[in-house]
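Whether sequence alone determines local backbone shape is best considered at the level of individual chains. We regard such an encoding as a compact summary of how the chain folds. The sequence in question and its structure tokens are set out directly beneath this paragraph.
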Amino acid sequence: MSQIPAKRPFQIDGRKLIAFTVVAIMSAIVLGLYGWSVPPAAAREGKAACAGMRPAATNPRLGELPAKTPAPDFSVTGHDGRQLKLSDLRGKVVLLNFWASWCGVCKSEKPSLEEMTRELSGDDFTVVTLASDKEWTAVREALPKGSPFEVYLDPPAGDDNLGQIATAWGIKAVPESFVIDREGRIRYYFINKRDWHSDVAETCLRTVIDE
């Protein structure tokens, strides 16, 4: 009658254990290096995108930029009577766009601004536009119905063409735009129109939003 061989006690191969440990350590190091390198790489990409949009270095009223200059506060009223203070938007990234209904370049910029607003606007980001106009009729005619960004009137004083807020912000001609971070500081200042729906523009904006 044959005998059933006795089972050998479970043994761990020392060489296999060492090899497994080395592989696990190397994997952890690789993952750690990847996690460390990705945020700086994304930040570099965002800064490069913003630089590619050619922000202005100075402003007649606000001085050297970018220097995280505090954005001057203002109060405006919408067509529905709702009031807004810029400081009410603290905690959000704001794209502040100065324009006018009589400005052809401004109107040509609006389609890309609309597309970008639809894609990015939310709890962390909003677009506010100030029109250097004396009454709402011309503003309504200049914008297509259902514009996703907020529109407010910035009436000029006397015979001036530019609104009083635009003048206080050092605007010399429209369109001009400012990117303002969550703490209410100016991060970027753009003279003339931009393609706001371009990959470069949205990458730049997302970098500030994701900080």
